[in-house]
């Protein structure tokens, strides 16, 4: 089975490394090109204008693929563990995988449709990515608790649940503030009128 193959644990490490590199490289290019301010720009702002938009889109699409592979490996691992100790229904594990894959699809949409080129599609992709991601990590936390103490330590479960809670808390203001603004450009000059839609 794929999840029991040697070296498969490198996939999540590659996912984190590649994703971090995607954000850092597109940020550096955007700052050096003068397309964003160096102090804490939105992630999507660093992938809006060429040339960083191409780098951002390419690297985030690969991140989405690596995330999907990681989630599938986790799904297979839980299925394998579930053969000896029935701690979760297979349908729950499958639903969790589907939520994760929806999040990966959202990431692909965000990477492909730039923030200012097609804002409504970009925003829908971001909503799907973050919303599904929050549901995915919450369900994985619950599955982890159900598999204790045989397949997980309580320390790992508590860490996963803390990440879930922080994700849920962060998701709420994201929705509230995103619904309040309508962004049509990144650069604003003093005295420029804001268009409201």
UniProtKB/TrEMBL annotation:
UniProt xrefs under InterPro entries: CWH43_N, DRAM/TMEM150_Autophagy_Mod
Main location: membrane
One Pfam match: Frag1
Ranges where the CWH43-like N-terminal domain occurs: 8-182
Keywords (A to Z) from UniProt: Membrane, Transmembrane, Transmembrane helix
Compartments in which it is found: Endomembrane system
GO cellular component: endomembrane system; lysosome
Topology in the lipid bilayer: Multi-pass membrane protein
A biological process term (GO) from this entry: regulation of autophagy
Transmembrane segments: 54-73, 94-112, 124-143, 155-178
PANTHER family membership: DNA DAMAGE-REGULATED AUTOPHAGY MODULATOR PROTEIN 1, FASTING-INDUCIBLE INTEGRAL MEMBRANE PROTEIN TM6P1-RELATED
Similarity comment text for this entry: Belongs to the DRAM/TMEM150 family.
Name of the protein in its database record: DRAM1 protein
Organism of provenance: Elachura formosa
Gene name linked to the record: Dram1
